[in-house]
Amino acid sequence: MSDNTVTEWAVLNDAHEALRTAVRGVAAEDWDLPTPCAGWTVTQVLQHAAGDQIGFASFITGGPGPSENPFAPSGKLDGSPLDMAEEAMKAAADAWATVGEDVQEVSVPVPPGKLPAPLGAGACALDAAVHAWDIAVATGRPSPLTPELARELMPVATAIVEPLRAFGAYAPALGAEDGDDEVAALLRYLGRRPDWTA
Description:
- The chain is mostly helical and 198 residues long.
- It contains six helices and two strands, in the order αααββααα.
- It has helices spanning 10-24, 42-61, 81-96, 117-138, 147-165, 182-189, and strands at 106-107, 114-115.
- The longest helix has 22 residues, at 117-138.
- Pfam families: MDMPI_N.
């Protein structure tokens, strides 16, 4: 699939490009590698990330949700991983393309269930971007999460992540360390070690 939908939501476009880059970089033999998401393989992180993008789309459009529970991914893919990612990102991008920046309440699959449009689009972007990082570092690739994108996503994270920790969606925040840049600060806030290795 090459028909990538671009929206007016620059942060979502950038996050989708990060996820696309991460998925393209996975070698055929690397899909079963461990990731920073404890107990999950690269395949399972992709399934989760794709399911979340479809989830955001379905809350906006009323269309079908993901075909399996994003929080219990099977680890088995039927088709091309990149096609799966592209289909999910296109669904999310198409849905967000219908939402204006001034909309005060957009239905979203994260607490409290409705968010102002900029925060909702940011939540969708945060999910894609952090899982792009998970996939990239698990497979020994450079981080596709840039300092600029991390800077945009940090206020989103601080606004939405705390209630999600109670559901196990994010680990407890880690303390800041000397030398942290914007990417490291965001990752630590999301409970991830910036220097994670398998």
